[in-house]
Predict the 3D structure of the following.
Amino acid sequence: MELSGKIAVVTGPAKGMGGAITLALAREGVNVVLAGRDLEAIAPIEREVAAIGRRALTVSCDIVDPAAVERLRDEATKLGPVDILVNVAGGRGPIGKSGIETTPDEFDEIIALNVSGAFLLMRAFAPQMIQRRNGKIINIGGTFGLRGRAGRVSYSASKWGMRGLTKSFALELGRHNINVNTVSPGMVDGPRFEVVCADMADKLGITLDEAKIRHAEDYALRRVSTAQDVANAVVFLASEKSRQITGQDLVVDGGWVI
């Protein structure tokens, strides 16, 4: 994908999609700045990046703290000018609570993580991209930002908000040769998917494997996405293969939001 030697900042790089995205970029020759709060969880990913032969720099960062984001920007330059920003870090918010049952604090927390965090990071790294007339920004959204979802009011609202940020920044930064896009995964195979299927199995009185099959049948392709599927989409949008794509939602869901 002609990414060798590029530098990417990845927030939330340690778990699930974040880890897959980080390693996919590293395999393409990208050096990475790994930003997050749980440095112990990031350490194994840093070692894997080094084993691939790429450079990794881990920086402690709370993405909702403007001062911490500015420190991240300054620390990242130790690897060199940042070419790619991938905003993975975020939260899920209350699950199964109606809007009425969701507390103001619960709502504000997820909006801060998923919207304000992405805003602060784009605001911090865009100026240096403007100066170099080059950059790729990829935000990790979700299909609940494309379809409303009962019982997920705060999360759905936050992912709709992230889409608005993406499109507005794309319009503002396009003249500077900067692409800004969103990758919107559906359900991704992993621990959370196991919990969802176990809950379905319990409610319907079926086996876990039967629940997984029923869940997959909601998708056109009859299969659940993997973290690697999401990582592949990010690599594409980070490359010049996507040079004429901006302000878009690349949905990776096997055909649920159609």
In short: The helical segments are 17-27, 39-52, 66-76, 104-132, 153-173, 191-204, 208-216, 227-238. Residues 189-224 form one domain. The chain has a mean pLDDT of 94. The chain has eight helices and seven strands.
